[in-house]
Amino acid sequence: MIVAERKPIKEILAMVADFKKILLVGCKGCVTVCNAGGTKEVGILASALKIARKKEGNPIEIDEMTLERQCDPEYIDQLEEPLKNNNYDAVLSMACSVGPQFIARRYDNILVYPTLNTCFMGGALEHGVWAEFCQGCGNCIIHHFGGLCPIARCSKSLMNGPCGGSAGGKCEVSPDIDCVWHLIYDRMKQLGKLDQLREIFPIKDWSTSRDGGPRKIVREDLKK
Amino acid sequence: MPDFEPKIILFYCQFCPDKGINSACASNISMPSNFRKIRIPCTGTVDILHLMHALEAGADGVFVLACKEGDCHNETGNIKAQKRITYVRKLMEDIGLEPERVGIYYFNSSQGPSLKNITQEILEKISELGPSPLGLSEAA
Fold first, then answer.
1. Are B52 and B88 in contact (CB under 8 A)?
2. Are the C-beta atoms of residues A32 and A38 closer than 8 Å to each other?
3. Which of A124, A134, B36, B86 has its CA 20 to 30 A from that of B140?
4. What is the pLDDT of residues A96-128, one digit of tens each?
5. Do residues A104 and A12 both lie within one domain?
6. Hey, which residues 9-28 in chain A have their CB within 8 Å of chain B?
7. Which domain holds residue A73?
8. How far is A33 from chain B (nearest CA, A)?
9. Number of separate domains in chain A
């Protein structure tokens, strides 16, 4: 999933400083799962903003809504009625960065603001802890490394063994980061595939990654 | 501020704190009338939104009375409540509202008489802070 976290409340307060009425829109997709932008987080942010503004003697009206997803046009269409029937100064999105962009793309007459920082593609290590597992390079090669990704999980994205900074299974960047090459070695040893690591991995073709500019996938079998 | 009578919302667990409150009552120690008590199944059910909405409605203070560590009937309800209180306090700090308006106390069934000390401490703390700047304490 895409993992995100809420922007600092002061940054969001500065965004809405001149507004009297806004629509705060959550997303039931990834950001609900990572507790950043679901219905509950929309409620908490709305409450915090209202408290802050009421305290300043400058109350703000906030309507709350959570869409099934903000990365599909059919759900973004559901904002049409509320936007038509209310005189909102702006829409604040609690989705990953795709959400506010989809809203801005669909409605050209309303200001749109992001309230989350989109951080990475990852998973939950435990409740409340998420880590990066994929960098979206567009050409998955993890099967060469015991199912672990040296691109997303090695600080230097090395593909032919660890650097000199690996010590005690930890990365030199931070003791909180596991050295993925240590994990790859342990796993390949357990699988009896250490020999595979002797093969030099060729220079990766990064054209499928961001080096080729913004990416797009077209499925003719699905396209209308 | 002699006329200020703080409006306090108090969430309390139906297990140890409830028994403690009953035992305090048996000793003629009653909860001050400006405490609005909300009995809940476990302090682990107190959500961040409950605390925020109480503050938003103009409560001068929002507190949780939880079982002591290790006594929670659901094992970690009181620990979860503590973490949520910490979250709300940080949020309050970020938006410039006194974080001391939110807090947690631990209380068990054998501590009935100490209820007076807890309510007194809360009242003193909130009286010192003054009315909620949201200015709606009548609505709480």
1. yes
2. yes
3. B86
4. 999 999 999 999 999 999 999 999 999 999 999
5. yes
6. 9-10, 13
7. 2-119
8. 17
9. 2
Please state, in angstroms and rounded to a whole number, the distance separating the CA atoms of residues A121 and A152. 9
Q: What is the predicted pLDDT for the residue at B137?
A: 41
State the nearest Cα–Cα gap between A24 and chain B, in angstroms: 16
> What domains appear along chain B, each with residue ranges and CATH number?
8-130 (3.40.50.960)
pLDDT at B139: 43
**Residue A62, helix vs strand vs coil:** strand
pLDDT in tens, B57-87: 999 999 999 999 899 999 999 999 999 999 9
Check residue B22 and give its pLDDT: 85
- The residue in chain B having the minimum alpha-carbon distance to the alpha carbon of residue A41 is B49
pLDDT digits (tens, 9 = 90+) for B84-129: 999 999 999 999 999 999 999 998 878 877 889 999 999 999 999 9
Which residue has tokens 């009625």? A81
Please give the Cα distance from B76 to B78 (Å, whole number): 6
